[in-house]
Design a protein that fits this description.
Length: 155
């Protein structure tokens, strides 16, 4: 059973990271907040045992990613947030131009690119988190980079 102190520590340590992942995937602040909250509710309910902090972080990212996919599946008709809201979120991070560019990518590339370039996971770790094969992760990274290069080539 997780203690209230451990739950608070997890929210402090991983909350912003999970929120950034969810906002990049969902492009909607309300849905992102709900997905993060649902992630921590699952964390409390399951009370999983972790080998170390990296294992805990990966588990939370995988749960948050799955929550986002569920939102995307059931709320396909939701609108994207106005640009001002996304700009305000991007301004809070040192990698705001990257975050803005990632938000323009299709979802299947957006989440993979975020996990790799923003959070710093390796291909095999992303495969574990997303349930994809390593080769699929590599292909999505390659395609995501190509899309970003095309976008920057237009400027």
């Amino acid at each position: 059973m997780l203690t209230a102190e451990r739950i608070n520590d997890a929210v402090e340590e991983y909350g912003d990271m999970l929120y950034r992942l969810c906002i990049v995937m969902l492009r909607n602040t309300a849905d992102a907040e709900d997905a993060v909250q649902d992630t921590f509710i699952t964390y409390m309910e399951k009370s999983p045992a972790f080998n170390d902090s990296e294992h805990e972080k990966a588990w939370l990212l995988k749960v948050a990613s799955n929550k986002c996919r569920n939102v995307l599946r059931y709320r396909k008709r939701h609108f994207a947030e106005p640009a001002e809201v996304l700009d305000a979120i991007a301004e809070r991070t040192p990698d705001n131009r990257i975050l803005e560019s990632l938000m323009e990518l299709p979802e299947k590339y957006r989440s993979i690119m975020h996990l790799h370039y923003i959070i710093g996971y390796k291909v095999e770790e992303i495969a574990d988190i997303t349930g994809l094969k390593s080769s699929a992760v590599k292909m999505r990274l390659q395609k995501g980079r190509k899309l970003l290069a095309e976008e920057y080539g237009k400027e």
